[in-house]
User: Fold Integrase family protein from Conexibacter woesei.
Amino acid sequence: MGCTTEPERPRRRRVERGIYLQPNGKYTVCCRHAGRLRFRTIDRDLGDARRARAALTTAVRDGTEPVSPRLRFDAVVRWWLERFEAELTGFVELTEDVGRAEPTFAAMQA
Assistant:
């Protein structure tokens, strides 16, 4: 006896080169990087999808777009170091003020 299953509906339908329509009505754009397809989901406007695909293709070619849209470790490290250095600078200024004279309430607020 054979299994009777419903045929799967396609995950996406090709609209034009590099642009696909998903079953939920949103568009997906893609481009190839290092032999692999990279996809990004766009809203429901075909014009926006065309512009997004052109921008994604250009960014990948120029190396400005990360291959994965997730937050990258180096970006987090850079952000953390900037905040830490800013806080450290404020701390050093405050301790220098304390060493010279009595700190005022306004100096502590800074």
Observations:
- The chain has a mean pLDDT of 78.
- Helices lie at 46-62, 73-100, 105-109.
- The longest strand covers residues 27-33.
- The longest helix spans residues 73-100.
